[in-house]
Design a protein that fits this description.
This protein is mainly beta and 339 residues long. The chain has 2 domains: 244 residues, Thrombin, subunit H, CATH 2.40.10.120; 75 residues, Pdz3 Domain. The protein has 5 helices and 23 strands.
Length: 339
């Protein structure tokens, strides 16, 4: 059954960044060094995709005290658990979903736990208490085991059988950390609506997750969501990749789906090249296409991952919108999404 959902929160406030404009003579020298590299031929995306993620373990998104026999207790905090921890085992049993964790806590008693914090595994003992409100054992934990939303496909590598979307990682809205992913699926998605962005209020694309699996998600990274390629949508358009040394200010295009129909090409301008060593915020993209501006006001949520083309090559993807200027946002170099 299809389910209409919201989309991942992928908006950042405008950050004052030091960006460098590279002169043509500098680009010429950099292009010479780029000649030693090997280009890749990738099928560009631009289509909306559905993303379903299953966390590796159970994510702690918060702790909360409650009344037990009239006294405020906080078993989770007493055990040393914090927001952002990932529960791995409880009573020597692997916990891969919130339901299992909840059932174990409901049994009461001392619960030996294994959890992960910042990539390091630790142990703790949780002592649930009976809640005055429910009469049941509680641990004072808010937990999550999955997430879903829509975004834009950036590219598919038909040689290595990989598809990549978003151009940035998926972060948990409560913990602020990168969601630890055990598995998931990349699916097709259907456009539903678009809300145009305006100053102080970013717009969004709404859609419906489809049932056709495009691939199995195996990694959620700062530079995108990575999935095995099992199915492609429509006839692919292949573009060579550009080296970051070749990317420059000036005219470019983005490819995205912001209406009920196929993906379209829209005119943009690369106004700044930022720190080329940055992982994700490598360039500033300004929408100049009057059609796209009339539909969306510029860059909106759900457009993350939209491919960026320049000089006939794939140079990167849209990643963020500037909240105080929705006509502009950040983009990532394609080389960073392939590393």
């Amino acid at each position: 059954m299809k389910k209409r959902i919201g989309l991942f929160t992928c908006i950042v406030s405008l950050i004052t960044a030091t960006c460098l404009l590279f002169l043509p003579t500098v680009r010429f020298a950099q292009a010479a060094s780029a000649a030693k590299k090997t280009r890749r031929n990738l099928a560009i995306g631009g289509e909306l995709v559905g993303i379903r993620l299953k966390t590796a373990g159970v994510l702690v998104v918060g702790t909360e005290p409650f009344l037990s026999q009239g006294i405020s207790v906080d078993p989770a905090s007493a055990a040393g658990l914090k927001k952002g921890d990932v529960l791995i085992e409880m009573r020597n049993q692997k916990v891969s979903d919130a339901q299992t964790a909840t059932q174990i806590i409901a049994e009461g008693g001392v619960i030996e736990m294994v959890f992960e914090r910042n990539g390091i595994r630790q142990s703790a003992e949780l002592r649930p208490q009976i809640s005055d409100a429910t009469g049941l054992y509680k641990g004072g934990l808010w937990i999550r085991d999955s997430a879903a939303g829509i975004g834009t496909l950036t590219y598919s590598d038909t040689t290595n059988r990989v598809s990549v979307a978003l151009g940035h990682g998926i972060y948990d809205a409560d913990t602020g950390g990168l969601m630890p992913v055990e598995n998931g699926e990349l699916t097709d998605a259907t456009f539903s609506y678009v809300t145009a962005g305006r100053i102080g209020s970013p717009g969004e694309i709404g859609g419906t997750i489809g049932t056709n699996q495009l691939g199995e998600i195996y990694e959620n990274r700062d530079d995108g969501v990575f999935a095995t390629l099992s199915l492609m949508q429509g006839e692919p358009d292949f573009y060579e990749t550009a080296f970051q040394e070749e990317i420059h200010t000036g005219e470019a295009q983005i490819v995205c789906t912001v209406s009920d129909g196929d993906k379209q090409f829209y005119e943009v301008e690369i106004t700044r090249i930022c720190d080329r060593k940055s992982d994700t915020k490598n360039m500033v993209v300004h929408v100049t296409d009057p059609t796209l501006l009339s539909l969306t006001g510029g860059i909106v949520q759900g457009m993350s991952g939209a491919p960026i083309l320049q000089d006939g090559r794939l140079i990167g993807a849209v990643t963020h919108v500037f909240v105080n200027d929705p006509s502009s946002g950040y983009g990532i170099f394609i080389e960073n999404m392939m590393d």
